Amino acid sequence: MAKHIMSLDPGVPETEQLKKEYITFMKGVVSPPLNLPGTAYRKALQSRSTILKFINRKMDERVEKMKEGIEDLEEDNDLLGWVLKHSNLSTEQILDLILSLLFAGHETSSVSIALAIYFLPGCPRAIQQLREEHTEIARAKKQAGETDLNWDDYKKMEFTQCVISETLRLGNVVRFLHRKALKDVRYKGYDIPCGWKVLPVIAAVHLDPLLFDHPQHFNPWRWQEMKQQSSDQSSTSSSNYNYGNNNSFMPFGGGPRLCAGSELAKLEMAVFIHHLVLNYHWELAEKDQAFAFPFVDFPKGLPITVRHLNSCI
Ligand code: HEM
């Protein structure tokens, strides 16, 4: 993500330093707002300020280069390069945009991928079906003399989409949303006064047994059933499990504030799963569990053992 946003290469000292600050920032984002020495909140404020200074410095360097007419293909095509050249955003708006995208686009996708790695070994039949789907895609590409995955390949990943949806439903990377009533609202017999904050808990919807059969069970095939049901109008109306309904599945939120990166996130997960199932066998090295405190994480870092498969493709 940092590479696409600011052309930061993984492993180099400045990226690692930014990562360290980012982790401290994340730990204090949802914490009691006590600006006292040693608190997570205070440390997060300090890290946020360090990150903003870092982005500001990068911006100044870029502006200098642009003035001198120095071209850099990679930097000109990253997000920072694009906004500097083609937008009229103020410095403050650019800083806010870059920080928000680093925040919104990094943790969510990487935790979702970790959750897929965590759930799948408990469902060997799903791994088998994924392998079949991706082996077929890889075989067709080889026949066509192509190597890199493209949009048409992605569109063929139908079962993979079921695995992604199920991972997002059960994993609940984002557990609740933030809303504020802009006027007095009466909803299902409840009065919500103007100005009150409302936190819709999407995790509660995703784990509701009235909406999802055996909601704690990782079952990617439920999404195939859902597709089948929605194509069969008559059966949908008599079913309890209307999880094709947008209000019952909203890992990316909804309405005008719907996640801006939802399609990118699913694409990232699909590409990762493609390479994972084609090339590797993996298992959990020790028992670990996903915890939400407040962001979903694995206390032990989800250690896995990985073995390379001798693929015949
Ligand atoms: C699996 C990964 C992801 C999940 C589960 C996720 C989830 C969410 C959720 C629940 C929201 C709040 C929506 C609302 O309030 O209704 C949101 C907002 C947002 N997300 Fe994501 N997200 C993911 C990945 C990404 C990525 C990869 C990017 C960008 C590269 C991104 C950018 C954003 C932005 C910019 C917003 C704010 C949208 C707005 O307020 O207008 N997200 N995301």
Automatic annotation (TrEMBL):
Q: Kindly give the membrane topology term recorded for this protein.
A: Single-pass membrane protein
Q: Which GO terms of the cellular component aspect does the record hold? A: membrane
Needed cofactors: heme
Instruction: Note the SUPFAM superfamilies from the entry.
Output: Cytochrome P450
Q: Which Gene3D superfamilies match?
A: Cytochrome P450
Question: What are the record keywords, sorted?
Answer: Heme, Iron, Lipid biosynthesis, Lipid metabolism, Membrane, Metal-binding, Monooxygenase, Oxidoreductase, Steroid biosynthesis, Transmembrane, Transmembrane helix
Query: A GO biological process this protein is involved in?
Result: leaf development
Q: What is its main location?
A: membrane
Q: Which positions are annotated as binding heme?
A: 259
What compartments host this protein? Membrane
Molecular function as annotated in GO: fatty acid 2-hydroxylase activity; heme binding; iron ion binding
Keyword match Magnesium: no
A Pfam family annotated for this chain is: p450
The yes or no answer to whether the keyword Iron is present is: yes
Q: Which InterPro entries match?
A: Cyt_P450, Cyt_P450_CS, Cyt_P450_E_grp-I, Cyt_P450_sf
Q: What does the similarity note say?
A: Belongs to the cytochrome P450 family.
| The protein's name | Cytochrome P450
